[in-house]
Amino acid sequence: MNSTELELWTKIKQFEFDDPSDSLTFSARLARENGWDLTFALQVILEYKKFMFLLCIATEPLTPSDEVDQAWHLHLIYTKLYWNDWCTKTLEKQIHHGPTKGGESEKLKFENLYENTKSFYLEKFGSKPPENIWPDSNVRFKNNKFVRVNTDINWVIKKPFRK
User: Fold this and answer.
1) What separation, in Å, do the N-terminal and C-terminal C-alpha atoms of the chain show?
2) Other CB atoms within 10 Å distance of the CB of residue 56
3) Which of 46, 83, 103, 130 minimizes the number of CB atoms within 10 Å of its CB?
4) Structure confidence at residue 143 as a pLDDT band (50, 70, 90)
């Protein structure tokens, strides 16, 4: 990293998502909404920070892992925290989230962007991204049929493995 990148990365690393006065902090909400333990949610937040750093310095579009995308989605609903504190004061750049338009060409585009993101990560951080948060593309883009389910009134039972 050059000195400008290092300065930005330091600001991003130091950014605190959790307000200790909240009964339900950002990291606890991220864990709860995704069925993760708090330790994993905190790891995802670190990877989200790394992804946003990469977005700030990249010259081409990038794509997050699903886990990182879940942190980004949650962050977006904390509008003041996202736009004022994160984008304006920390990143000093507006970062918008654009969904896929659907279809096979978009699938291929995002698979390529995802692989490019992981390569750029290796280049900038000197190590591969952790596989438990950044899986292979065939895993990342295989199961994308998500729905919101209230687990207080519904059971969710995993389907048997199919090839």
Assistant:
1) 43
2) 17
3) 103
4) low
